[in-house]
Structure formats: C-alpha cells, structure tokens
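Two proteins follow. First one:
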Amino acid sequence: MPFGRLLWAGIPVILVVGAIAAVTYGKTHKETIIRVIQTPLELDEVRVKIEKPPPPPLAGSFLSLTGIGDHEVASEGFTLKRSMDVRVYAMGEGTGGQMHDYGLILDADTRETVWEMDLQATEHAGGATKNRQVDEVISLEAGSYLVYYVSDDSHSWSDWNDSKPHHPEAWGITLLTPDGVARGDAVGPYVPASDPAIVALLTGIRDDENRSQKFSLDEETKIHVYAIGEGSFGEMHDFAWIENAETGRAVWEMTYNTSEHAGGGDKNRLFNGTIVLPAGEYVLRFRSDGSHSLEDWNVTPPTDPFSYGVTLKKVGG
C-alpha cells in the first residue's frame, strides 16, 4: 500500500492510498486543488477553501490587512478624531535596495504619503533574507487616512518561493495603539464623503478605456489636477487631457515631461498641479492602452492605485 505526502493548506499530511495511480497537487490564491487520478479515464477533484489567516494576535489593533497573496492591492481607511500616536507593524518582501511587498499610509484628502515601508528601516523577519518587517510608532494628525498594501507576483502568504517568515500570518500591515489599549473614542471607520470641490472625476481606469466627462465653469477658475497614468521612454500610454467642448481643442494634456514618478514601477506617472481655466464648457478625457491598469498591473502599481485616472478639483472650493 503506497504512501503519499501532500501539503494540505500548508500542513504536511500523510495519505494512505489503495489503488491510486497518481496524486498531483496545485495551489491558487483562493483554494488548494488536490487531484486524485484513479484511472486514465477518471478524475476526482477535492477543493479545499483557503481562508485568509486571522490578524496577528496583537493587542490594540484597529486595522489589519494580512494574509496578502501574490499580485494584490489591498486597501482600508480609518479616521482619527484627534491627533494620536499609531504603532505600525508591517511585514513584506525586500531585495536590491527596495521593497516588493510593502505597506503605506496616505492622507485621504490630499493623497500625500504620510508613511511608507522603507527597506532601510526594516529588519529581518525570519526565514529567507528577503523577509522584512518593521515595528514603529508614528504620530498622525486628526483626519482620515487610507492604508494600502501592495504585493508583486511572487513570494507571499499564498505561495512562498523561499523560506517563509517566522510569523507568516502577519504578512501585510497592521495598525495598533502603542499601549495595546483600544481607542474606540479616537479611532473610527473612514466614510468617503462627496467633495463639492470636485468638478470632474475619471478614476478606476482599466485596460483599453476611452472615458470622458463634461463639465462647465461659470467663471475663470483655478483647478487642481491629480492624474495618474502610464508612460515610458518619454511618451504617455495611459493619460488625461481637457478639451474645449466647443472647439474640441486640448487646453491641457498630461505629458511625460510635465509628470513625475507616481511610486511603484518606473512607468507610473503622476501630474499633481494647478491650472487656470476660463469660464466655458469642457470635456475631461482619459485614454488607456491594453495593459497595466487597475484591471491588471504588469509591474508594481503606483502609490495611490485606486486613483488611477484623473480628478479635477476647484482650488479653495
């Protein structure tokens, strides 16, 4: 009677099999698939649901994005009712001077990065050398924040390609109170509110899109433009522009030279600036090519991936 050895959701299991010809094992982020081939004509599939591990047992935690798999972008927000210190415990992958799986915190209103997992500030998390962790306390002002965790296409909780860290269930980012005491009176959920200053919005852009939105201005207006797209070798591939609705002529366009690095892969580009538009009718447009977008990033996504596209806001509005 032959014996087979499998990993059942990461746990060694010894199988005693009678008249079985072969056993094969496959794994995806969502489930483990064990195929037991009894004869060349028969195939049974036993699907075992893989649940994400619970947050690490850390007292005082109020936000946790853990159990992150390959090629994921996870996000959750929170609101501080008053200024307070926050303990950040994050674990990820880093080599060659940069992080590949990492966490970051953005100001929900300005989209400015207030904290990012920097390889130089991390320490070894056990297992493979590239397993890195950081445990530090930062000070945040009252306001709303967005927490992101970004992973590349290999070495994560769903499929380690090298030795896993000492605490694999904590792969991701967790926010806590420094003293481990719950602060329900100071920390609350993030509820996005409609912003009356927004005059046009095209975000969540996916592959092969050509989207537009009309807007009008009653008087000369200063507009803050926040646009994230894709560009390389001096040319833009995913980009925004504004047309005069009457003439169809572009009055502003996102170019490679007027944009800057948006975080993540080198081709992520950001325009974050102010323009002035006369009173009139306009059309905001965004065009994307067939790859690298919110639908499927083919390199590390930008720092603010869910704003991929363009947002126009009145300055002081």
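Second one, unrelated to the first:
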Amino acid sequence: MALVSSTPLLQAAKEGGYCIGAFNVHTLEMLQAVVEAAEETRSPLIIQSTVGTVKHLGPDYIAAAATVAANRSSVPIALHLDHCSDFGTIMQCIRAGYTSVMIDASHDPFEKNVEQTRKVVEAASAVGVNVEAELGRVGGVEDDIVVDERDALLADPDECAKFVELTGVHTLAPAIGTAHGIYKGDPNIDFDRIGRIAAKVSVPLVLHGGSGIPEDQVRRAVSLGMSKMNVATELRIVFSDAIKEVFAKNPEENDPRKYMVPAKQALKAAAIEKMRLCGSIGKA
C-alpha cells in the first residue's frame, strides 16, 4: 500500500488506548529495519526524519525509499518530518511525498506559535497531510535544536485546548517533563499533566523524548493518552554499537554489508521491543 497520513493511524491509537512508535531513521538500512519490525509484528508505523537528515539525504530520496517500503508492505506506514521550524522546508517535504509534518514554533510566544501552526495546517490539510505541533518546550538536544533543562517549559492544559481550537492542528506534542536524548537520571514526567491535557483536547498526543524512558512509565503515559512515541537517540546508539562490535572483532573489515547487516538486525530487534511497549503489535 502507499504511504498514508498518520492522522487516521493516531486517531485509531487514541481510541484503542495504544501508542504508535515513530522512529527516526538516517540510512536506508535503518528504514528497512523498522519496516521489517512493523511487518513482523503487524504494527502500524511512523518513519521519521529530522531536518538534519533531510538536509543530509534530501527529502526526495527519503520519500522515495519510504514509498518503496510502503508499496511493498502490508502494514500502514506514514512518513513524518520531525521538529521543523522552517515553512519552506515543510513545503519541500510535503511536495516530496511526506504524509506528516511537525511545525515546531514552541520557542515563540503562544500567539506566534498559533499563527505559524495555523499557516502549516492550512497548507497541509489541503493535501491530506497530518500536522503536529509542540506546546511548552521539551528539553535536551534534537539535531541542532538545543533546549537547556532550565528553559524547558511544561505545557498548560488550558493553553493546549485553546491552541488546538485556534490552529486545527491534528496532533499535539505537549511538554510534560520528557527530554530529547538519553536521560542522565530518571525522567521527571508529569503524569497528572498528561491526564489533564488528554481530558481537554480531542486530538492524539505525542510523547517526545522516548529514548530510555523506563517501561512502566511508558505504559503509564500511554494509558493516560499518549498515542505516538518518538524514538531517536536510542536507535542511533543500538545501530552504531552493532557496527562498532563488528570492527572490534575485525578492524580490517571493509565490506559495508558485513557491518550494516548486523546493525540492521540489532535495530530491528530494538524497534520490535518499542512496538511491544507501545502496545501496537497486531494493530495494523
């Protein structure tokens, strides 16, 4: 089947009380690994790329690879642009074939965030593309976006409701205490806030900073209303460690297939584990 919008996938997840894993990929092997994981577990899938990866590979290359994967797959697959603050890049990705985009104007004042988001929603909705936005500020590092922990702001439930109403955004990523990257200690997730936001908004909620959150906390966040979980750093580490292991055993190895295949297998196993944690297995 062709690439699909993530809107119906996430609405089904919200209604069904489960979560869909959204996996950041940076190479063809990483993309293939998460698709194979979704096929094996019968899980709906969201493939993600950061702005940095779009610049590195080109949106048309990424969309073409994701389209081939979707056409060969029997599970629904969406392609999402993560954390983008540039309208031009968002439009470029939509034209290339992305079926979901994130406008991140969370660094702007509320009114400006509304304005920026509404502009993207109007353009994307015309072609059936999902739009995600962020309210509050998730701490940590995502590509070249760095938010100091002291600058991270938790989303206000009433503002979330107002934001969704004013923008018509399809999915919302509220800051609830998670962080991008790997946690130095236990994450400080405000579960009460998740519940209060979910009670006030009708759209699916997105959990950013899904790498390294303890299992019980992921399950609790999902039970309270998180319908999409982003995973990036953890996948890069798994993939890279598998390659390092090959070179540790054979420093003279020069065939990319010999180190990419183990990396792909390791990433696939990690993705399957995240799908199990999200409760998306068998939901395709």
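SUMMARY FIELD: The mean pLDDT is 92. The first strand starts at residue 20 and ends at 24.
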